[in-house]
Amino acid sequence: MSGDSARLPTRLKIFHGFGSIAYGVKENGFSTFLLLYYNQVLGMDAWRVSIALLIAMVIDAFLDPIIGHASDRTYSRFGRRLPWLYAAAIPLSLAWIALWNPPTVEGWAGFAWLTGTAVVVRGLISCCEVPSVAILPELTQDYDERTQLMSMRYLFAWIGGLVIAVLAYSVFLVSDEPGVVGQLQPEGYGKYALSGAVLMSVAVLISARGQHKRLARLPGSRPEPTTAREALGHIWEAVSHPAFLVLASCVAMGSLSAQVTFALSNYLYIFVWKFPEVWFRYYPLLILFSVLIAIYLVSHSHRKHGKRKAVARAVVIGNFFWATPFLLRLAGIWPEVGSNFSTAMVFGFFFMGNLFAVIVSISLASMIAEVVEASEQQTGRRSEGVLYAGNLFVQKCATGMGILLSGLIIDFAGLEAKADPTKVPASVVDTLTLIYIVMVLLLASVLAWRVGHFPITRDDHEERLRNLAERRTTA
């Protein structure tokens, strides 16, 4: 065991992860429904929606390192991180409701509303997520305990996204009229927004309260005042560490691929695979089971192979399962799309693909924690907030690019706004499929190659912890 060998209480792990429900709800909305809602339901051009969300994403990405640095330097009787969680929870829920209830979608007024509310929502999520995830390296230095903590965060993030997805597919966005797709009707989105708002604020507050006893204390020392230039220098010094740069490139590839998949998911389900509406109710449960199994397997994979090799293996295997149905369909050797048999087969392949994708995501996020000590050894400062914010910065820039690419793919394929799924030409569907799958496989190949350059192994980490402990003893 490395570092602090004491096992964390399961209760604390659950409370730590619980707050990420808010992030999961946000991701479900932005990645799955927002483009579809503004484009296919409200009628805003896909490119206009994509650009608005890209602008919001980029602004938010530049806020993250600032929030991370500020939380690293927060000095209060509630500790460094908790004040951010308590302050942001309620404003986040109000901003979420506003995002899904635009007064207009016409012209630049609608564009401005979407951009502005998206910026506010994303900024407030960052005020919750950046300080919250930066708690992880403070709770334990152990290589495997960190994997379990990050697994718990991913579990609850997926639960948050899947709970709201189940409500959407089973309750809010369901049509009683035969042949009418509920997701393309506007009536249920208000209830979807309200439920998500309540879920996000409650999750953040419960998580903060559950960790309060452990974290609510004055930090060991008051940070020295710094100028803006010095602060930027500290941020740059942390995020320019070679190990972080390797991870950042991997995260960029993974996030770009994931965002294109999420943004196009309902388009793929409706226009490519023609899922019968009843199957949408079961799909979130399928994803949940894949996440649970991934969380069970990821610790075993890290112990057997190490985090670096675990990522490379999972990328290759996961993308084989994910791409196969699309390639077989293009080759004309897939069962009739829209049939129960076809949908069941897609579910099986997607189950395996998502399982390995979750292993990749958990592994990359867990590896950030090892960079914290590598950076401390180099700079003499703990920079958890900055490093996790830097990771989110990369994620959000890549995600913003993914949203933009998704809108461009839709337009290039020729899929019109408010399209009738029964009347879309086969050539449009094939073009959409081909561009999507080529992009996903290319990004996966780059990620699998790049992660092999990550320089920190388990042995490196444990040796570094010993060196840092000796330094503190002799200081």
Q: Roughly what is the average pLDDT, rounded to an integer? A: 84
Number of self-contained structural domains: 1
Rounded radius of gyration (Å): 22 Å
Instruction: State the separation between the terminal residues, measured CA to CA.
Output: 24 Å
CATH class: Mainly Alpha
- Beta-strand segment tally: 0
What is the topological layout?
Elements: H1 10-18, H2 21-41, H3 46-72, H4 82-99, H5 107-133, H6 136-139, H7 143-172, H8 189-215, H9 228-239, H10 242-272, H11 277-280, H12 283-305, H13 307-330, H14 340-379, H15 384-413, H16 426-450, H17 458-474
Entry keywords:
0% strand; Growth Hormone, Chain: A; 475 residues; mainly alpha
How does this structure look, described?
The chain is mainly alpha-helical. The chain has a single domain, classed as Up-down Bundle (Growth Hormone, Chain: A). 78% of the residues lie in helices and 0% in strands. The protein is built from 17 helices and no strands. It has helices at residues 10-18, 21-41, 46-72, 82-99, 107-133, 136-139, 143-172, 189-215, 228-239, 242-272, 277-280, 283-305, 307-330, 340-379, 384-413, 426-450, 458-474. Helix 2 packs antiparallel against helix 8, helix 13 packs antiparallel against helix 14 (340-379) and helix 15 packs antiparallel against helix 16. The longest helix has 40 residues, at 340-379.
